[in-house]
Structures are given as C-alpha cells and as structure tokens.
From TrEMBL:
NCBIfam families: division_SteA (NF040608). The chain crosses the membrane at residues 354-374. Residues 342-388 form the SteA-like C-terminal domain. Keywords: ATP-binding, Kinase, Membrane, Nucleotide-binding, Transferase, Transmembrane, Transmembrane helix. Residues 1-20 are annotated as: Disordered. It comes from Nocardia testacea. This is Cytokinetic ring protein SteA. The gene is steA.
C-alpha cells in the first residue's frame, strides 16, 4: 500500500499534462462525451470554430488531432481559439493514433509525445508522437493559409471564366445534355453521390422516398449504395470501370462522363458487358453531370445525398479543376436542389403517425357515443363534448409545436 502511494506520488511529478483520453472519429459524438480535464483524440482536418468552441466549453486539457489542424487550404480559426484558451493542441505525426490510444485510458502528454500513464512501468510507454502547435506555429500556418487563399481564388476565377467560355451552352441551355429514355419531367429526383456519408444521407431520406417514389440516380459508388439500401436504381452516372457488373447490367440507364473531346474512359467495359450507354462530355464532376441532367430534363425537385458543396470542398486543393463547374452548376440548378439533411429535418417536423391515430380514435369515440346517446337525450353528450373539445385543443397545440415528432 505504501509502495503504491509512493509510485502515485512519483507519477504526479512527471512533466506534461495528464488526463483521460476520449477517442472517437465521429467528432459530434466525441463532443457530447468530453469532460473537464479530458484529452480529446479526434480526426478533424482544418479544425473549425464551432468544434473549438465546444472543446473549450467542455474544458478539455488537450486535443490530439489525427488530421492536420491547419491544412493550408484556408485560414480556419479553430486552432487559434484553442491555443489562446490554454488548450494543448497536437497534430499526430504517425497514422496510428486511434489504434494506440485507448478510449478511457489515462495518458500523459509531454514535449509532443503521448505516453501511457501507468504506475507500474518504470520506462514510459510511447503511444503517439505528435507535432505541438503553439501560438507561433499556429500564427505561421494561418499566415501561409491566407497567402494560399489568394492564389486559390485567382485560380478559381480563371477556371470559372474558362468554364463559361467553353461550356456556357451546356450550362445555360442544356445543349449536349443526354436525353435518356427515363422521363424526369415534373418528377422528384434523388442524386446519391459517392461523397463522405452518402449511405447515412440515404438512410435519412427513407420517409421521403417511401412517400414520393422519386427517380433514383446513382453517381459512382453511390449507385451501389442505392442498391444496397433496397431501392430501384433508375440511372447511373459513372465510369463503368469503377462499378461491379451486377450494378451495370441491371435495369438502370448508364451515363458515362467524357472529356470535352469525346473520349470516355470505360467504354471498353460497356462493350465487354454488352450493355448500352450514353456519353456526357463535360469538365464537371459526375455529380455535376447528374445535377445538370436532372435539371435540364425538367425535374421538379433534386435531393442530393453524398454530394457536398461545402466551403471545405471549395477550398480542397484536389478539386481546384472541378470547383468552377460545381459552383456554376449549383447556381444554375438554384432553388430546385435540396440537401438530404434538410429534407430529413422537414420530415421530422411532420405530423407524427401517433397523433393521426389519435384523431381517428377520437372520431370513432364520437360515433359510438352518438349511437349510445340516441335514446338518452342530450345530458350524456355534454360531458363527452367537453372532453372531446379538450382533446382537440391538445392535438392542435401538439401539432403546432415546433419540431413535433
């Protein structure tokens, strides 16, 4: 017992910060779990202000990020807020932070190294090596990001002008947009892209799909997600080389993205499988092509799942060539487009089935009471009418309450 106390005392004198590790790749879930003094281990490229504010409010002692907290794409304010608030910020140098740091374990951080905080080991166990971002390092990276932002905007402006010059007829008038056998005019359309979270977005749309039976367009691996979810796949926009034969040989029509000169990768596979396909020359992404096709073929509403067009996507250096097309495509489609999350939110606010069942039950009660009271005069109806009136007021208030579900 005395030996254990001695070891505990020695461990408290070790340099650095000690705390309980909270480990989760899902940042939203992690933010709900962190407590004062914890060490948050997350995976958040370009750590944003909202996340930083939540971490500060939770009182975390340190943040270990498996992705660059400042990638240089744009000057994100999150890291600056954390460091100014006294939170130790580290970017993991190795890629095994989530494998090495166990959720709920006690860890110690010193000089950019995460150690296992164990009393029974004389030699400290190194878990992850990191790069500590102090105020100077954060300021330098943000300065570089601001300089890179100017170059990014210049590149974007030049790309936008080039896209308008070469493809304005496609964008504005739909010249060159394929005309599939599928009739999209006046229909609701769901475009399932291959972006992050496309399967989760598709799950959110289950009530919408059940009610409207929309046209389902799969983009890239989004076509597989549609089939896995058990929905009918109507149209595919993808390189055939990237999809399995069972998807391509189904009943869905196939649109193959092509270069402006007409070359389309994957046509050899189309011939090999003996299926039909239409090429779509455009410099945009496959998701852009799907949106333009749905819009110019008269879709009444276009719901996107896994096809993000966020600020982070805009500043992604890997998408510099396609960003102008994505930006102008979204402007063209305009008010006809909605994100899956927005549609799911609207459906959560609809009148729930339980209340509808209650209304039907109330109607049946009225009918039964009327039959029973037929030979007993109005004295039996008065209290029943009062009760039904109260029930009616309650139902109306519940339905009118924001976010009723």
């Amino acid at each position: 017992m005395r030996m254990l106390a001695l070891l505990s005392k020695n461990s408290e004198t070790l340099p650095g910060r000690t705390g309980t590790a909270r480990v989760d790749r899902d940042t939203r879930r992690l933010l709900d779990r962190v407590e004062p003094g914890d060490i948050a281990v997350l995976d958040e490229m370009d750590l944003d202000q909202v996340t930083a504010d939540r971490l500060l409010a939770a009182g975390v002692a340190a943040v270990v990020n498996a992705s660059p907290s400042i990638s240089g794409r744009y000057p994100n304010p999150g890291p600056e807020l954390l460091v100014a608030g006294g939170v130790l910020l580290l970017d993991a140098v190795t890629s095994d932070a989530f494998d090495r740091i166990r959720d709920g374990a006690k860890v110690r951080i010193d000089s950019g190294v995460v150690y296992a905080d164990r009393l029974t080991r004389r030699e400290p166990e190194v878990l992850v090596e990191c790069l500590e971002l102090d105020e100077t390092a954060v300021a330098d990276r943000l300065s570089e990001a601001r300089n890179g932002l100017a170059g990014h905007l210049e590149c974007f402006a030049a790309g936008t002008l080039e896209f308008v010059r070469t493809e304005s007829s496609l964008l504005m008038d739909g010249i060159g947009v394929p005309d599939p056998d599928l009739d999209l005019n006046g229909r609701q359309v769901v475009v399932v892209g291959d972006g992050p979270g496309h399967a989760e977005d598709l799950k959110k749309l289950k009530p919408f799909i059940k009610e409207y039976a929309p046209i389902m367009i799969g983009v890239g691996s989004g076509a597989e997600a549609v089939r896995r979810a058990g929905y009918r796949l109507d149209l595919i926009v993808a390189n055939p080389e990237q999809l399995p034969a069972k998807i391509l040989t189904g009943n869905a029509e196939l649109i193959v993205p092509a270069e402006l000169d007409g070359y389309a990768e994957g046509l050899d596979r189309v011939k090999e499988l003996g299926i039909g396909a239409i090429t779509f020359p455009c410099s945009g992404t496959p998701a852009d092509l799907a949106l333009l096709l749905a819009h110019h073929r008269g879709a009444a509403l276009i719901v996107t799942a896994g096809a993000p067009a966020s600020l982070e996507e805009f500043f992604d250096r890997c998408r510099r060539d396609s960003n102008p097309a994505t930006f102008l495509t979204r402007l063209k489609v305009g008010g006809a487009i909605m994100d899956a999350t927005a549609v799911a939110t609207l459906y959560r606010s609809r009148v729930p089935g339980a209340l509808m069942a209650l209304l039907v039950l109330a109607a049946l009660v009225v009918l039964i009471v009327a039959v029973l009271a037929a030979g007993h005069g109005s004295e039996i109806l008065a209290p029943v009418q009062d009760l039904l009136h109260r029930a009616d007021l309650w139902v109306r208030e519940t339905i009118g309450r924001p976010g009723a579900s």
